[in-house]
């Protein structure tokens, strides 16, 4: 498992990105999710996904009252699927931040998308 924590400036949101690499990662993943305050029901669903070795998916949780977002990526079957799912989950992060802070501005949205694109790229390259 790989994990990286980023801060999104201006919004002051902590973004935790986690890449599951196999079912042996679950105990470490569980500790991380518990620390992030993810509900037990969601952790149990995640356990099922990891133990069944499902691929090509991700989950995003957020509590913006605590300025926190966590994203888990499951293993990927292809690089192309990896890009699609990273973009999909990145969009959830963007939407939640923009919704929470009531941002309705095309340029601000684009700036956030670009910034998050760099963060996700850096995570991919870890």
Overview of the structural elements:
- The structure is a single chain.
- The relative contact order is 0.17.
- The model has no long low-confidence stretch (mean pLDDT 96).
- The chain is 50% helix and 21% strand.
- Helix 3 crosses helix 4 (106-124).
- The protein has one domain.
- The protein is an alpha+beta fold and 126 residues long.
- Strands 1-2-4-3 form a four-stranded mixed sheet, covered by helices on one side.
- It has four helices and four strands; from the N terminus they run ββααββαα.
Please describe the topology of this protein.
Blueprint (H helix, E strand, L loop, with lengths): L1 E7 L4 E7 L6 H10 L4 H12 L6 E6 L4 E6 L5 H22 L5 H19 L2
Helix pairs in contact: 1-2, 3-4
Characteristics:
126 residues, alpha+beta, four-stranded mixed β-sheet, globular
The gist of it:
With 126 residues, the protein is of the alpha+beta class. 50% of the residues lie in helices and 21% in strands.
Q: Radius of gyration, rounded? A: 14 Å
Number of strands: 4
Total domain units: 1
N-end to C-end Cα span: 11 Å
- In the predicted model, the low-confidence regions spanning at least 5 consecutive residues are none
Largest sheet: 4 strands, mixed
What percent strand?
15-25%
Strand order of the largest sheet: 1-2-4-3
**Class from secondary-structure proportions:** alpha+beta
What global shape is seen? globular
Question: What fraction, in percent, of the residue positions are helical?
Answer: 40-55%
Give helix and strand order, one letter per element, not per position. EEHHEEHH
Mean pLDDT: 96
Please report the number of helical segments. 4
């Amino acid at each position: 498992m790989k994990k990286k924590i980023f801060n999104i400036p201006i919004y002051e949101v902590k973004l935790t990105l986690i890449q599951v690499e196999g079912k042996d990662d679950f105990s470490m993943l569980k500790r991380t999710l518990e620390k992030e305050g993810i509900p037990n029901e969601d952790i149990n669903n995640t356990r099922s996904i990891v133990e069944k070795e499902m691929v090509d998916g991700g989950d995003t949780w957020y509590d913006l009252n605590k300025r926190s977002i966590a994203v888990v990526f499951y293993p990927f079957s292809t690089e192309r699927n990896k890009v699609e799912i990273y973009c999909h989950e990145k969009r959830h992060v963007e939407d939640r931040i923009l919704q929470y802070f009531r941002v309705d501005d095309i340029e601000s949205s684009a700036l956030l998308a670009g910034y998050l694109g760099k963060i996700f790229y850096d995570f991919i390259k870890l």
